[in-house]
Amino acid sequence: MLEQPPVPPVPDDVPSYDVDEPAPRTSPRSIVLSVGLLSSALLLAGLIVLPVPFAVNSPGPTRNVLGEHDGTPLIQISGADTYPTTGDLRLVTVSGTGGPGFPSTIRDVVTGWLSPSSVVLPVELLYPPDASQDEIDQSNNAEMVSSQENATVAALTELGYEVPATLVVAGTVTGTDAEGKVDKGDTIVAIDGITVPDYTTLLDHLAQVDPGSTITLTVTRAGQNVDVPVVTGTKPDGTAQIGIYIDPTFDFPVDVKISIDNIGGPSAGTMFALGIIDKMTSQDETGGKNIAGTGTIDVNGDVGAIGGIRQKMPGALRDGATWFLAPASNCDEVVGHVPAGLRVVKISTLHEARADVEAIGAGKADDLPTCTTS
Fold first, then answer.
1. Same domain (yes/no): 215, 257
2. How does pLDDT run across 247-269, given as a tens digit for each residue?
C-alpha cells in the first residue's frame, strides 16, 4: 500500500480564510484609482479622434501623365499622330486634412509634427472660414479644367499649331481704365488695328506695349464693332495689362482629352502640357527617365508658382522620380529642402521645360539650371 506524503504545516504568518467567510472588500482608494484610470483612458481616446483647428499637409499620390490610371490613359489624343513613350512624367499632389469634411485629429497633428515631409498650420491659413466642402471641390475642379485647357493650348502652340479663340470679356478689374469702357459680353476682335484670332496674339501684342500707354481695343458689341481706347496698367512682372477678365472659347485643331479623378487645382498644368508634347512627337523626350514636376501654366506657356512644393518633392522621390521640374518662382521654398536622391531643375516657361526634359532623356542634364540661394 502506498503512503501519502505528509502535508507540510502552514506557516504561522500566512493568513487563512474560512470558505464560509466573505472575501475581503476592495478598498475605496482602489475603486477611486480604477475609476480614474478608466476615465483618463476614455478621455484620451476621445481626444485622439476629436477635430482640432489645424491643417496637416503631407506628400500625396503622383500620376504618370504618359500612362494609365485604372485602365484609362490620362491623356488621349485624336486628330493627330501619336507616338509611344518609355519614361514617366509625373504630376505630384499634396494630401491634406483640416478642410471642411476632413477635420484633423490630434493624432494627425502629432504625426505631422513628427514627419519631416509634412507641415502643420492653423486651418484658417489654408481654407476660407465659411467655405463648404462642396464649394472647395467645385473651385478645385474648375481650376483643374482651366489648367487642362491652358495646357492643351500651350502644348499645341509650342508644337506649331494655331489655336483660334473667341475672346469674350467676362468683366473688368476695379480701378482700371477699362472699367466703365469695356462691357461684360464684349468680344475682342482687334487690338491697335491688328486682328486677334487667338489669345496668343493678344498677349504677344501687349508684351510690346509700354505700361501706361493707350491701346485701342476693337470689340463686337450688340452686333457692331466698336473702338475703345484704354490706358494700360502694369502687371507685377512690369508688362502692360488692359484690366479685363477674358473667358476664351478655343477652337482646338486636335482633340485632347485629359482624364483624372480626385485631383483638383491648377498645379498639374505644366506636366499635362509636357505629356501632350511627348505623345505628339516622334522623339522620346524622357528617354526612359522618371521625371516629376509641377507648375501652373497659362496659354502663353508661362509657368507659375504652386503651393506645397516641400511636400511634393518627397512624394516624387517616393514614387521613383530622380528629377523634379520646379517653377522658378518657387525656388525660395526649394532651397534647403530637396530630399537626397532628387535633382531639381528650375523652369519658367513650357519651352524651357521641354528642352530640359529632352536634355534629361538624352543624359545631357549636368548643366541644367537649379534653384540656388542667390
1. no
2. 999 999 999 999 887 788 889 99
